[in-house]
Amino acid sequence: MELLDRVESKDRVLAHRDAVIEKLTHEIAILKRHKFARRSEQLDGHQGLLLEELIDSDIAAIEAELAELAETLPSDTKPKQQPKRAPLPSELPRTPIHHEPETTQCRCGCQLKRIGEDVSEKLDYVPGVFTVERHIRGKWACNQCGTLTQAPVPAQVIDKGIPTSGLLAQVLVAKYADHLPLYRQERIFGRAGLTIARSTLA
Asked: Among 57, 118, 161, 168, which one has the highest count of C-beta atoms within 10 angstroms of its own C-beta?
């Protein structure tokens, strides 16, 4: 009986201690939330007024500087406007496209005289265009002995394959330098006029 009483009393003590620990843990969590919450970083009304005063003083100083600069600049000279667009590189090839009126005869019957022209440049881009290299190897035969002579097949990167070194270089550069996956290259080639399967590209 005494052992049971001791066990029960110790269980009650442990239950009381667990309740106290839980209560203290809860209070500490509330205090931490209250102390370190985001609302503790908000500005109060007095600090906001200080910032408004600083902003007003800065705006006044800027307006005074602008007024001084306006007085030093002559009124008849205006600053030149910088071109908004950089000129196109001169090394790019130009294709002239002429736009002329349908007739150079005036409505009054006189011949119109050219006095100038307006030129505007547009930047154009032509995507990759497929071309075919036709390797024609002539066959030469002798009428006397029937000997057949022909130039040897030039060395290819892929034996009996159809891609040239230029096409292979394009695929490799696009994949490894431009990080363009093969399925995207397949679509690009399809838009250019020839669909090359992804398995073939791989």
From this structure: 168
